[in-house]
Structures are given as structure tokens and as C-alpha cells.
User: Which sequence fits this backbone?
């Protein structure tokens, strides 16, 4: 809608709208969170649902400045399978910080709000850390093998803490999200890993195994999302300035095998091998799909200088 403006002007306006949207929504969110502190279960549940609506409104407003800044063509398939009242484990390939807003824009109010498992230290991030806490994002503390070797009494505490954090999800539908690659795809990271996949980094299966151990009785479906940018991986500034012109997204719902629920990934070597094989098969299929998308939607040639 504002495509007649220079990209730098559009980017500046989008940044200001994002900041204002965040500050306003956070203020309302914190006010509701104060009532959630009262030890009244029915009130806590009601406040949780209100805060989720506030977060969904924040996402909706972000979609608004995205439409103002640019004219993105969205080629999306598979969203009709989603249920707003479902419980899901969600994953996607990861190329850019733009991925998060692309996912929120297309999944908002079609399925439960995406919630990430966060490191315990992130609760101290100014403003946003409190928002994550208020919205019941689960904070977890993972221990390395070296630490557990020195402190064996800590074994199993990370899973127990996460199970406790996830108790509140029994009354509110949730979509727990995890980037299996653990980091954004770049040529240097791909080469450093010697990844066997053409369009992906190696998947890290421990993260979702940990989630299924903690929440296996609730998360029975995997929402497998594949994102492709025909013009190449965009920066966040590209999104703010309306220069993301084409986004391809494919959504598949997969059953999570019952044998993988509630298992001990860290200590059961046989299970760990079977689970890693399952994840690698998913990644092989995703890599093949990305190959098809790259062929069908190739990157356009850059204009001559």
C-alpha cells in the first residue's frame, strides 16, 4: 500500500509501528498478568486466555504493518488441516529471523499461539522476558553431560522442571515450536557441518525428544512446515521495508509414533538411535520438497548494474 515510498521510509515507519505495537500490547499484558498472580485457579485460566488474545492481537497488528510496507505474494498450502483447539509440536526449516514473523502471520488464530521452549536465563531479557513469562512460555534449564558427570544428583531435574512448567498446558491448547536446525542456514554453516542435505543443516533431534518426554501425553501431532523464499533469504530489514515479495510455505501434519512418547532420549541409546533415524527421514523429505520448490520457484536473476 505504501510501495510508492522509498524502502528506507517504509522501513522506518514499520519499525516505529512495531515498537508502538509492542509497548502498548505489553502494557495491557502486564496489567492482566498482575491478576494472574492471585491464587484463584479459575481467574488464572481466564487471565491466561485474555493474555493469549492480547498476543494474537499483537501478531495481527504486525501483519498490518507488513501489508502496509509491501505487497508480498503468499503461496501457502496445508493450513486447512489445522485446529485452533489442538495441541501440536511444530517445526520448520530456518533461514532468517523473518521466518518467525512469516509463521506468526500465517498461523495466527488458525492454531494455538506458538510457544517456544526457552533457556532459563532469557527470562531476564528486558520487557520481552516478562512477556514470555506472563504468556506461560516454558523456561527450562538444560545440563551438559560434563556438568551431570560432576553433579549426578541433577540428572532428570531438567525434564521434571519442564513437566511442571507444562502442567498449565493441560487446560489451554498449545503449539510448542522448535527449529530443529538450531540456527539459521548459511553457506558457511552448511559447509562447516558437512551437511548431507542440499538445502538444510543437520537436524538436532534432542530438542523435540525432550519436549515429547515432558509433554508426550498431549502432543500427538507434528506440524511440519517448509518455507522457501524465491528471491533468497531476506533480512529483517527487508521485511520492515517491504522488500519481501514472494513467500512459499507448505504445511504438513504428521502423526508422532506412540513409541516415541515419554522416552528417555538422554540415557536410552537404542531409543535415541531410532528417534534420530525418524527425524533424519523427515529431514530427507523436507530437503526433497525444498529441491522441488527451488526448481518450481527459482530465484529471479538480479538486475544488471
Assistant:
Amino acid at each position: 500500500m505504501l510501495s510508492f515510498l522509498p524502502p528506507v521510509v517504509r522501513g522506518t515507519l514499520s519499525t516505529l509501528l512495531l515498537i508502538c505495537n509492542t509497548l502498548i500490547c505489553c502494557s495491557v499484558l502486564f496489567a492482566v498478568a498482575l491478576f494472574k498472580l492471585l491464587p484463584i485457579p479459575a481467574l488464572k485460566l481466564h487471565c491466561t486466555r485474555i493474555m493469549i488474545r492480547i498476543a494474537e492481537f499483537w501478531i495481527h497488528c504486525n501483519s498490518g504493518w507488513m501489508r502496509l510496507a509491501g505487497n508480498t505474494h503468499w503461496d501457502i498450502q496445508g493450513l486447512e488441516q489445522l485446529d485452533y483447539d489442538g495441541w501440536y509440536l511444530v517445526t520448520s526449516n530456518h533461514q532468517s529471523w523473518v521466518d518467525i514473523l512469516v509463521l506468526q502471520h500465517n498461523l495466527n488464530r488458525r492454531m494455538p499461539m506458538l510457544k517456544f521452549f526457552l533457556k532459563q536465563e532469557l527470562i531476564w531479557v528486558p520487557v520481552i522476558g516478562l512477556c514470555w513469562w506472563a504468556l506461560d512460555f516454558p523456561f527450562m534449564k538444560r545440563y551438559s553431560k560434563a556438568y551431570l558427570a560432576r553433579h549426578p544428583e541433577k540428572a532428570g531435574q531438567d525434564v521434571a522442571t519442564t513437566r511442571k512448567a507444562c502442567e498449565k498446558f493441560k487446560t489451554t491448547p498449545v503449539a510448542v515450536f522448535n527449529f530443529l536446525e538450531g540456527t539459521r542456514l548459511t553457506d558457511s554453516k552448511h559447509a562447516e557441518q558437512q551437511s548431507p542435505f542440499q538445502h538444510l543443516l543437520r537436524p538436532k533431534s534432542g530438542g523435540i525428544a525432550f519436549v515429547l518426554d515432558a509433554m508426550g501425553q498431549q502432543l500427538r501431532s507434528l506440524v511440519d512446515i517448509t518455507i522457501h523464499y524465491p528471491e533468497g533469504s531476506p533480512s529483517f530489514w527487508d521485511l520492515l521495508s517491504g522488500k519481501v515479495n514472494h513467500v512459499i510455505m507448505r504445511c504438513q501434519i504428521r502423526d508422532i509414533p506412540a513409541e516415541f512418547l515419554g522416552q528417555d532420549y538422554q540415557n536410552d541409546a537404542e531409543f535415541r538411535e531410532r528417534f534420530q533415524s525418524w527425524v533424519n527421514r523427515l529431514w530427507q523429505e523436507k530437503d526433497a520438497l525444498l529441491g522441488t520448490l527451488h526448481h518450481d520457484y527459482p530465484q529471479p536473476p538480479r538486475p544488471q548494474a
Q: What stands out?
A: The longest strand covers residues 246-255. The chain has ten helices and eight strands.
